[in-house]
Batch of 3 targets.
Target 1
Amino acid sequence: MSKTFKKLLMSEPGLSFLYHAIRGFESTYRLTVQNERPWMDRIASGGSVVICCWHQQFFAAIRHFKNYSHLKPPLMISRHSDGTLVAGIAIRTGWDIVRGSSSSGGAQALDSMVAKLKERRIAAHVVDGPRGPAGRIKAGLIRLAQLGNAAIAPFYIAADRAWYFNSWDRFMVPKPFSRVTLWYGDPIELSPITSPEDFERERLRIENIMLPGLIHG
């Protein structure tokens, strides 16, 4: 991608065009959403939830996630230039973007995410982003859920026809008019964490729950 084209794409008109193009593209999907109610009911009854996914699979959820805009879910996105592109799309979807990652501004971003989670009772997280390794849940998800006293509700995407990029996570884009399923796992409560060993145990437990949903395309 040339610098000129990238600059144009990251401009306000460019991001607006890209967002509407994605929505139009995803409107062709024959989308089925499964098991959404458990985490929604938890929020409605006063609980808190972190919805999360593998980096590989977030693209196909963009159009549907406009349905959550009234909740203003906070989402952490890296300060890298690629993150600026994703942030521009997420903002137009109605999400509240916090910039930062484990490599830059992570502590401050996590504090902001926790505060917003406590206020709104919902947050979102990409568990192995922004650069992997694929299939390894990073510490941020567990810290966010622990500090925000929230359950973890993973979601997964599957499609009968999809492209897989030659990237670190085999990034998936379902093809037009494909059958796409977005399904949520039941909310997962963290066990008490009082030591580094407890923390790693919980990280591995959530990772093992989510790994079967990772696609090796």
Target 2
Amino acid sequence: MLLRPLTLRDAPAVWEAVNESREHLAAWLPWVSTMRSLDDERATIVEMRARWMRREGLTVGIFDRASGRYLGGSGLHRINWDLRIFEIGYFVRTSAEGRGYIAETVQLLTRFAFDSLQANRVEIYVDPRNVRSARVPERLGFILEGTLRRFRADVNGRPADRQVFALIREDYARLPWRGDRSS
């Protein structure tokens, strides 16, 4: 698996993955409904790259290292550089679900945040109805801090609950996979 920033050359592959997974992703991710064409995807990639340059968001594509196939997206979002707080978001295309790509991605981004960016805190917000997504931080040892009621808009723009999973530096230091570079 390979994580890297997206380029405009990736737009067709991302567009294909979103279309393949549209029905599933649309239930959880509001941005899916705004992706109506390849041009929309290109514009999104341009904005992601600008946010990267401004250090506002570090979005990456998830690629199969051997084939180069686009598998999904992730990154560090809602960055607070003063407090060194980073939020990880993620999705995987339908045909790549259940293969551990997201868990590996979250591990890599968590290591990057703590080891390279000197994070004090890494967060993951999950809609409590998205049980499969919540299993990722649970399995990786993130602490479920609680449920924030009516915290963020759902795909229909209505206030919806979010579970917040987090690691602080002391939690991260105790994780068995923290030093494992094989994954």
Target 3
Amino acid sequence: MTDSLPPLLAHEWIAGLEKGLTVIEAFDAHHPRMTATEAGERCGMTRTAARRYLKTLAHLGYVGTDGKQYWLMPRILRLGHAYIESARLPKLVQPSLQRITSGTDEIAYLGVLDGDDTIFLARSGSPRHTSTGYWPGTRVPAQVTAAGMAILASLPETEMDAWLQGRHMPAFTSFTFPSPQKLREALVQYRRQGWSVSEQQLDLNYRGVAVPLLDRHNVVHGAISITMPINREETDHALMRVLPVMQEAARALRPLL
């Protein structure tokens, strides 16, 4: 999916940058506001050190504060937006997402794997879909998304097994895969058939279908996916309707990746 980076020499490492980014990443849905003490605990640093980073981020406009608690400010979106604007893959895939939507009348997404999660980098949709689905930047645990499973299934087996090793499998619904072994069995099947489906893994009301984006060397770069209400049609009918369009899009993109 990504080129491996060469080892970083000690004199090239900027520890302060690493810690500042760690502080930013400490904020999430469960920790939207934190004191310096709480941020330090989450980041493995002292209160004094966390406070210095937070005050610097506040001075730069990335963090807000009332003197006690800190929270992220809209300026932080510049960091993610810069990637969306400059990255090659979303721009390359966006026209294909539009064609998938035209051919299926469903929301189409580009997702990539980032650690534990699927990140959705681009989407398309008809006007009736403007208030639903994932938006660019949304992160979802990879094992419950069709895109995440399509990517994992396309990794070299050693990389797939390394990702699964000791994996915690929280149950979002009663249909969520209960163990890494059960997930691996599904991934082997998805690798064999060349596409994945996620039904009620994250939300009881939705189905996801995904096709991996492979280059000419069979290296996976991400996945294109569709989500749809599960009660609208049977699985077989849904697959017959959307899969050919998605597979054609993936084939057309293959020589460009």
